[in-house]
UniProtKB/TrEMBL annotation:
Assembly: Monomer.
Keyword set includes Aminoacyl-tRNA synthetase: no
Ranges for domain TRAM: 413-476
Key words, A-Z: 4Fe-4S, Cytoplasm, Iron, Iron-sulfur, Metal-binding, S-adenosyl-L-methionine, Transferase, tRNA processing
Segments forming domain Radical SAM core: 164-411
Stated name of the protein: tRNA-2-methylthio-N(6)-dimethylallyladenosine synthase
Top-level taxonomy: Bacteria, Pseudomonadati, Bacteroidota, Flavobacteriia, Flavobacteriales
Length: 482
């Protein structure tokens, strides 16, 4: 098991009611990060205008789309396995078309068509608006490929169809792409340059969610803290912007403030924060608004300064500690989670010990931990030898996971005896008699249902815990939110 907490069920297919007049059936599956799940909602929205409603039955689909992840080799292998399954179904239903979306499409491009003969369509993350044209080509019997990356596409004008939704929490994309070029990471190659979305379209999307009864929004980006809107375009071109554009620019702290102020009863989260881009302004804004959750996903990847440098992470271990101290000073009960990579090229046991000691300092609430997986095309893939053996990677990863489990339990235990505000999302997976929701720190809380319902903000007295879940009893509706 690589992850302690699985944030989403991978490969979950998406279901929506759809338009009555639509006659064709789309089966869409998503793998990887939240951005992929969010993108699939954009794709479903574009295709609902083209006569497609989604189905959860692969066998009856006219079009099968798989939104893919390239972040680690294992993620790609999972997709290859699914392609085998689609292929088997296509043999029975030869009219079925198969398309690959997302990061693997971008990474492999038309090579995909040679490797997997049954694929009809390859579409990269910035080309979804071209789907109607591409599907026309496919209908005419040709393969179609569009993997052009864009400098300004944000899909800001597309209102996503909320798929597989609990009706309570939703993701809203605010940036696309990433300019950070961490040496291990394929994302800058598959998702292109970083661009920010117009705050007006973000606010409009949140307003629509609020009108539809949603209660929590997670602002989404590969690197949300570097959000910057000055009228469109790349962040690096900001220097060339006019004085007026500069004066009216909106950064991430301002965007958070804008959202939290405009929607005082909506709860806000954001993900992901690269430590190098997180400013005091953001932490202060979080502290000022009760409806911005006290939780930061703050991946560090390694606790060794030498490895951080090799990874091209633009901060030291000491600077990271300073950031953690500042967060805890302003938001003492802030939940913090990590991503870690075990066995990056040249990592020694001493470097690994630095990672463990960093974890001891922070005592993260939870984390996502991975063995290093070399990705073709990245700087580490081209310039460094993947020289830590699989066995050593596994051992180090296990040590990191064990330590995280200890810290997770330590953190959940701190909640026992307290009364905490929880937003109810759904029935608990383990018991129909219990609700499941999350507190401000993003820890899952389960408690007997009583008279409450999904979407309610409830005060829950925490009575017990495991390392991943808090268990409690509701003591009434929360007054903070309506
Ligand atoms: N900023 C992004 C990070 C995307 S990748 C975000 O929004 O989450 C998510 C995590 O996958 C990274 O933080 C890193 O810990 C891990 N990861 C990325 N590339 C990897 C690789 N080549 N091998 C192992 N883990 C990797
Ligand atoms: Fe990847 Fe680093 Fe960006 S992990 S997504 S290059 S911040």
């Amino acid at each position: 098991m690589e992850k302690i907490i699985d944030e989403q069920k991978q490969g979950e297919q998406l279901i929506l009611e759809g338009k009555k007049e639509n006659t064709r059936k789309l089966y869409i599956e998503s793998y990887g990060c939240q951005m992929n799940f969010s993108d699939s909602e954009i794709v479903a929205s574009i295709l609902s205008e083209q006569g497609y409603n989604t189905t959860n039955l692969l066998e009856e689909a006219d079009l099968v789309l798989v939104n893919t992840c390239s972040i680690r080799d294992k993620a790609e292998q999972t997709v290859r396995k699914r392609l085998e399954k689609y292929n088997a179904v296509k043999k029975i239903n030869p009219n079925m078309k198969i398309g690959v979306l997302g990061c693997m499409a971008e990474r492999l491009k038309s090579k995909f068509l040679e490797e997997e003969k049954m694929i009809d369509l390859v579409v990269g993350p910035d080309a979804y608006k071209d789907l109607p044209n591409l599907l026309e080509e496919v209908d005419e019997g040709r393969n179609a490929v569009n993997v052009i990356l864009s400098k300004d596409e944000t899909y800001g004008d597309i209102s996503p169809v909320r798929l597989n939704s609990n009706g309570v929490t939703a993701f809203v994309s605010i940036t696309r792409g990433c300019d950070n070029m961490c040496t291990f990471c394929v994302v800058p190659f598959t998702r292109g340059r970083e661009r920010s979305r117009d705050p007006k379209s973000i606010v409009d999307e949140i307003a629509q969610l609020w009108d539809n009864g949603f209660k929590e929004v997670t602002l989404l980006g590969q690197n949300v803290d570097s959000y910057l809107w000055y009228g469109g375009g790349l962040k690096k071109d900001f220097e060339k912007a006019s004085e007026i554009q500069k004066a009216t620019a909106v950064d991430f702290a301002q965007l958070l403030d804008l959202c939290a102020t405009k929607f005082p009863n909506m709860r806000f989260r954001f993900s992901t924060s690269n430590p190098q881009d997180m400013t005091m302004d953001v932490i202060e804004t979080m502290a000022q608004h009760h409806n911005i959750c006290n939780y930061i996903h703050l991946p560090v990847q390694s606790g060794s300064n030498r490895i951080l440098q090799e990874m091209n992470r633009q901060h030291t271990r000491e600077e990271y500690f300073e950031l953690i101290d500042n967060i805890k000073k302003l938001i003492p009960d802030c939940g913090i989670s990590q991503d870690m990579i075990a066995g990056f090229p040249t990592e020694t046991d001493e470097d690994h010990q630095d990672t463990l000691s960093l974890m001891e300092y922070v005592k993260y609430d939870f984390g996502f931990m991975f063995a290093y997986s070399e990705r073709p095309g990245t700087l580490a893939g081209r310039k460094m030898i993947d020289d830590v053996s699989e066995e050593v990677k596994k051992r180090r990863l296990n040590e990191i996971i064990q330590l995280q489990q200890k810290h997770s339990l330590y953190r959940t235990q701190q909640h026992v005896g307290k009364i905490e505000e929880v937003l109810i999302e759904k029935s608990s997976k383990k018991s129909e008699a219990h609700w499941s929701g999350r507190n401000s720190q993003n820890t899952v809380v389960v408690f007997p249902k009583e008279q409450y319902k999904p979407g309610d903000f409830v005060n829950v007295k925490i009575t017990n815990c495991t390392s991943a879940t808090l268990i409690g009893e509701a003591v009434g509706h929360s007054k903070m939110h309506i």
